[in-house]
Specification:
Elements: E1 6-7, E2 10-11, H1 12-18, H2 40-57, H3 65-79, H4 86-102, E3 110-114, E4 127-129, E5 132-134, H5 143-153, E6 156-159, H6 163-170, E7 177-182, H7 184-195, E8 201-205, H8 218-225
Parallel strand pairs: 3-6, 3-7, 7-8
Antiparallel strand pairs: 1-2, 4-5
């Protein structure tokens, strides 16, 4: 879709900027993926290290960025992994401190946030409005499958990282937790904003930060999307992602 084609009075490029966090710039070609473990084995190893550390320390939810940063360095040292993964480890530790709160919240009181950069620009047929990207279910990216699964569970969904759109949903009073996907640079920018809500907020980092044709570990998204206390009535039948203990090895992606 051409950038000069108007959608609801704005071009595609203008809508893209509106649905990014404040002061965020679209950065095609960025090599920030160096901060995210690209190998599944390394991600799983570090996730297990995070789980072991949290089981030992029992850190509370809603930690500050500074506290998460210090704990992340200790985890990396124990795991024998480089400090370059510090921000990624901070996110995963944050998730595990807030998982106990998340699992007690019904699916229909959660909001799933997805970034527009998951779409395949140039192929994507979606349009935009003031709330975010309106997926046309073309099947070219992860957005439609994630939206479908989340909405089938009862989630509210939003394909936008813009402050105004998120605030409008939060102010509705119907959201008690967030499950989102975003790049590390965006997560760093929105952390202070999200922390003001004092609501459980789970984030799965994108594999890279280049703002277009990005990828995410789909298994990891589903790990948190379906997370629920065992025995909850809204868990779908035969759901492999709901377990009594989070440290059971996750299913491999087919």
């Amino acid at each position: 879709m051409s950038d000069d084609l108007l959608m609801n009075g704005k071009t595609e490029a203008e809508w893209e900027q509106i649905h990014l966090p404040d002061d965020h710039e679209i950065r095609p070609g960025c090599e920030a993926k160096v901060h995210v473990p690209q190998e599944r084995a390394v991600r799983d190893e570090l996730w297990q290290a995070v789980l072991a550390y949290q089981a030992e320390t029992q850190l509370p939810p809603f930690l500050s960025q500074d506290m998460l940063a210090g704990h992340a360095l200790l985890i990396l040292e124990r795991a024998g992994q480089p400090d370059v993964y510090q921000k990624w480890t901070m996110v995963m530790l944050h998730n595990e401190t807030e998982r106990p709160l998340l699992v007690d919240i019904p699916y229909n009181q959660r909001l799933m946030l997805l970034p527009q950069c998951l779409r395949k620009k140039g192929i994507c047929t979606a349009t935009f409005d003031a709330m975010g990207l309106l997926c046309n279910s073309c099947g070219a990216c992860h957005i439609d499958p994630f939206l479908t699964e989340a909405e089938d569970l009862g989630y509210a969904t939003l394909v936008s990282e813009g402050t105004a759109a998120v605030m409008s949903v939060v102010q509705s009073g119907q959201v008690a937790a967030f499950v989102g996907v975003s790049c590390l640079s965006t997560l760093e920018k929105v952390f202070p904003f999200m922390s003001t809500f004092k609501l459980p907020a789970i984030a799965v980092p994108l594999m890279q930060d280049d703002c277009m044709r990005t990828e995410v570990d789909a298994d990891w998204v589903r790990e948190y999307l379906y997370a629920r206390a065992p025995g909850s009535e809204d868990i779908p039948p035969h759901c492999p992602f709901v377990r009594s203990e989070p440290d059971i090895v996750r299913l491999e992606t087919a």
